[in-house]
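Hi V.,

Quick status before I head out on leave. The structure for the redesign project is tokenized and pasted below; the design run finished overnight.
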């Protein structure tokens, strides 16, 4: 059944518009993560992506109420922090930008989308806590970690109903229940979808392994950050203690991170507070 279901779901995925991923966006964010970012180098990188450059020029012209001739001038007028916020908004779907197409965004709406945003914010805070240098990459990995769950919910709800019942009845993790019911789980399927969309391996690995962080090879630190953030946010949202079997945390990863359960809880609460502020600002 698992092979047939996987093929069926992949056919469904192929009906969605392709995710727009520009390596230029990641390159620009890496430069912006450097406190000594060079404006000339940043302008040269952004100029390579005509769509991004056009959006930046248009936004700067509107905000500055003056003609903007090139990307370098736009960066000077807006400032590095504003440009960073602009690019982050471009790469994180809000339904109005090029991050996710509307059809995929619609699938991820609701509680699961909120969870994904919370995990993304938590990943950034954890990355700062653990001195991981690429904060934008940590955010993106957190944002997409449950993409497979979103697509399963949208296209195979009847098939996963058994796993939902098992999760509730026996208090086992979602991954364990999905493996039992489907023969694969949302982490595996989410990674397959990102591969189909041409996403870079650095983002695919944490999606595939955020429930099995010790199996990471390409970027062990990033996978562990996403694992810890996902556990922390799940426990914060359900008001359950970190370490419960429903949201298992890898004890080795937790110990080697140097972050206590108490501190992890604090970071999850901080993530929720930041998310609430962002929501309030968007609504206002």
């Amino acid at each position: 059944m698992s092979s047939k279901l996987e093929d069926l779901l992949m056919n469904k995925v192929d009906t969605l518009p392709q995710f727009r991923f520009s390596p230029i966006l990641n390159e620009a964010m890496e430069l912006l993560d450097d406190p000594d970012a060079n404006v000339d180098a940043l302008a040269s990188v952004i100029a390579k992506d005509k769509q991004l450059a056009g959006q930046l020029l248009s936004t700067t012209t509107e905000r500055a109420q003056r003609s903007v001739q090139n990307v370098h001038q736009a960066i000077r007028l807006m400032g590095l922090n504003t440009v960073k916020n602009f690019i982050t908004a471009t790469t994180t779907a809000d339904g109005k930008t090029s991050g996710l197409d509307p059809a995929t965004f619609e699938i991820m709406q609701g509680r699961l989308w909120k969870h994904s945003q919370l995990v993304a914010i938590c990943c950034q805070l954890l990355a700062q806590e653990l001195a991981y240098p690429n904060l934008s990459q940590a955010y993106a990995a957190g944002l997409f970690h449950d993409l497979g769950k979103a697509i399963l919910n949208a296209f195979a709800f009847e098939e996963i109903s058994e796993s939902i019942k098992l999760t509730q009845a026996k208090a086992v993790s979602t991954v364990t229940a999905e493996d039992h019911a489907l023969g694969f789980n949302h982490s595996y399927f989410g990674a397959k979808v990102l591969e189909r969309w041409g996403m870079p391996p650095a983002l695919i690995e944490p999606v595939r392994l955020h429930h099995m962080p010790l199996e990471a090879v390409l970027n062990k630190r990033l996978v562990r950050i996403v694992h810890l953030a996902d556990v922390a946010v799940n426990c914060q949202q359900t008001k359950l203690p970190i370490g419960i079997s429903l949201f298992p945390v890898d004890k080795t990863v937790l110990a080697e991170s140097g972050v206590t359960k108490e501190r992890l809880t604090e970071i999850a609460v901080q993530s929720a507070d930041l998310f609430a502020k962002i929501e309030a600002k968007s609504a206002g």
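Above is the designed sequence. The mean pLDDT is 78.

G. will cover questions while I'm gone.

Best,
W.
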